[in-house]
Design brief:
Blueprint: H1 18-48, H2 50-53, H3 62-71, H4 76-88, H5 97-115, H6 123-140, H7 152-182
């Protein structure tokens, strides 16, 4: 058998070297450590102050945004979301439902990059994912929060709070990733 150079073709972007996997694992554990208490706080707030609980919604974007911004690789946002979800399973009252929740939020961080086939990593794409989820989440949560029973201004405030939470968490994720990169975490960026 000859040692031939591998022709990566389009598959090179989807490889996960050990350093990338270890970085994703660290981000997933850190994300899980953040989301475990946020999950309980949000659950308790939902019982008495449901609109305040939605102010924490953006936190579920944070681990995936950090991963995508730092590593600039396809699917690392979903991988980190999966790992963060697995970390919080034993600490959550929702069990493995937490994994599905984290993957759902992580999918919105990955979605804009999918549209450009992970060839462009502009900052605005992170914010586009946050905007999309800040519209989709309130629509899907309409019945859970019984939004139809509230006045229009309250419904608008709910959307605005979700929007602010998602954009704020995305901005924080970008800041954290940029600081990690300056500290030498993440290695060199893919071309």
């Amino acid at each position: 058998m000859q040692n031939r150079p591998r022709s990566e073709g389009g598959r090179g972007r989807f490889r996960f070297p050990t350093a990338i996997l270890l970085t994703c694992a660290a981000l997933g554990v850190a994300g899980g450590a953040l989301l475990a208490p946020a999950n309980w706080i949000s659950t308790f707030l939902f019982l008495g102050l449901p609109f305040v609980s939605v102010g924490l919604a953006g936190l579920w974007l944070l681990p995936s945004v950090v991963a995508l911004r730092l590593l600039r690789r396809p699917l690392v946002g979903l991988l980190v979301g999966l790992l963060a979800g697995l970390v919080i399973v034993p600490f959550s009252g929702y069990g493995f439902g937490s994994v599905a929740t984290n993957l759902w939020w992580a999918a919105f961080t990955e979605l804009p990059f999918l549209f450009v086939l992970w060839r462009y990593w502009g900052t605005w794409l992170h914010y586009l994912g946050a905007v999309i989820v800040s519209i989709v989440y309130p629509v899907l949560a309409w019945a859970s929060f019984n939004l139809g029973s509230f006045e229009l201004w309250v419904q608008i405030a709910f959307f605005a709070l979700t929007f602010a939470s998602c954009l704020g968490a995305t901005a924080l994720g970008i800041l954290i990733a940029d600081r990690l990169r300056r500290a030498g975490v993440g290695g060199r960026l893919p071309r």
